[in-house]
Amino acid sequence: MHMPNCHGTSLMPPLLRVEGLHFAYPGEPALLCNACFSLDAGQKLGLLGDNAAGKSTLFHLITGLLAPTAGTVALHGTPCTTNAHVAAVRRTVGYLLQNSDEQLFCESVLEDVAFAPQNYGLPPAQAVEKAQQALEACGIAHLQDKSVYALSGGEKKLVALAGILAQEPEALLLDEPTNMLDTRTRQRLIDILHTLPQAMLVVSHDTPFLHALCSGFLSLENGQTTTMPPFHQHQLA
Ligand SMILES: Nc1ncnc2c1ncn2[C@@H]1O[C@H](COP(=O)(O)OP(=O)(O)OP(=O)(O)O)[C@@H](O)[C@H]1O
Ligand SMILES: [Mg+2]
User: Fold this and answer.
1) Residue 6 falls inside a structural domain
2) Structural domains in the chain (count)
3) Rounded mean pLDDT of 9-17?
């Protein structure tokens, strides 16, 4: 099994590898300086970092929403250097945005969740079936006919998650998934994520949630990622 660093010795390339990533927003100082880690198939990694450390920016870079000034993101060992490669990452990696309002865009919940499978080539009826399964898995089948604009914050989060699950990705990037969730829904999210086979990179300030879900941790500090030892009891909130 690969360790979450840049020097894995396994013959199989990791599902996702970030190598020497540098990035700065225009006119701003460097935000990422040589960020470097791997995510293996099925591995669930927590990504820790202070506000403004660059965690969401890193997710944008992985999914090609932003382009690094140097370094690469590789999928199954292939660096994502062309539009086709970026499209492959977006197909393979489901990205749950920090702000669900930026994620939902169709009129109805069912349409929104069915968008990705239809976009990736399923006939409409099968895309709808896939969407209904994803809504069911997230415990929100009853929302399917609602307008996305009429949802609560927590409902939006779960609909957005159903939308990325319907695309059947190999990995999930989850940015603050427990934000806006009440205790019961948060627990339901933990239960759902536990059952999923996908690799996950999870940003959260909810330390007990990360501890419940993840087997390893990265820290993003001063633009660099470092692998952290497992949580100790005193680090839990
Ligand atoms: N489009 C942008 N243009 C310029 N600066 C930006 C832009 N987007 C984000 N930033 C800045 O980049 C820094 C990192 O932002 P980012 O959203 O990646 O942080 P984060 O680690 O996700 O923080 P949080 O925990 O608060 O979500 C912040 O200082 C932010 O103001
Ligand atoms: Mg963020």
Assistant:
1) no
2) 1
3) 83
